[in-house]
Here is the input.
Amino acid sequence: MKDFYTRKSREEGYYARSVYKLKQINKKYNLIKTGDKVLDLGCSPGGWVQASLELIGNKGFIIGIDINNVKEIKAQNFQFIKADVEEIKIDGTFNIILSDMAPKTTGDRALDQERSFDLAMAALKICDTNLVKKGNFLCKIFQGGKYPEFLKEVKKRFEFVKTMKPEASKSKSKEMYVIGKCMKPKKE
Ligand SMILES: C[S@@+](CC[C@H](N)C(=O)[O-])C[C@H]1O[C@@H](n2cnc3c(N)ncnc32)[C@H](O)[C@@H]1O
Here is the structure.
């Protein structure tokens, strides 16, 4: 039995049920706007890219990065880079940085939380060098372990910080989404 959002994503032509998580978060916090330059970390198979393309219009663009290939997306304003986010240097300036990155779960909850924290911190550090002033950030992290430490780091950098577990996120999943709006000016 496929769940409601999996069936809905198939019917509506989206590559992943996670598309509805982004839609629900964006509906509440209005993170992605027309003309935005978007960096999507961990973008495969491409659900968040599809949703972001609907929001940014023709003037914006999206760069997506993943260690796995993305499914076919025919859009001139989308570029895919196959790479490990923890290993490449990203060169660009974005209005919003998204990270839905998740480690391959091992069943060892502490280890999975630690890896999820590492990925979330890698995404946050990319904000330090690649996000415009007053830019926005949305990042998945598994709760537990160093989750409070991650929240503290996000609060240092953004004026407005919220967390949300959208309805489309399975209740048994430990994932949480951290929203950072309006990046603070960098200290010299
Ligand atoms: C939950 S999926 C993302 C789904 C995506 N948001 C969508 O809507 O299609 C998590 C992704 O993170 C990617 N990922 C995990 N670690 C990564 C890393 N170090 N660098 C790049 N991508 C990574 C995985 O390959 C996986 O495709």
Notes: Residues 4-136+143-183 form a domain with the Rossmann fold fold (CATH 3.40.50.150). Residues 38 and 72 are 18 Å apart (CA to CA). DSSP finds five helices and seven strands in the chain.
